Input
Amino acid sequence: MALKEIIKEIKKLSTADQYRLKEFFNKSLASSSSSEPVFKEVSEQKHKDGYTCTHCHSNNAVRFGKYSVKLGMQTIERQRYRCKDCGKTFTDVTNTPLHRTHLPINGWILCSV
Output
């Protein structure tokens, strides 16, 4: 379906449905873009002295591929790490309140206010 056709179909919607569609896109796009600066800050602060294993606290950790996170309508790649001493893998959010949650960072910020 071409963009012009999509716009025609949107114009056929009721005002309430157009509003709901607008809110959906605003929420979907805002949730991914607003959380990335916070996530980068967490990552920089956590690794400012090098990569440290969150399990055994060894400084012998290396980058170990990436994993994908879907935020709204956008997919973002995040770094994974592996400890050369204990062999366990971890991410920037391991051992944080954000570990194993599906709520974007900005959702956690809203919950804490």
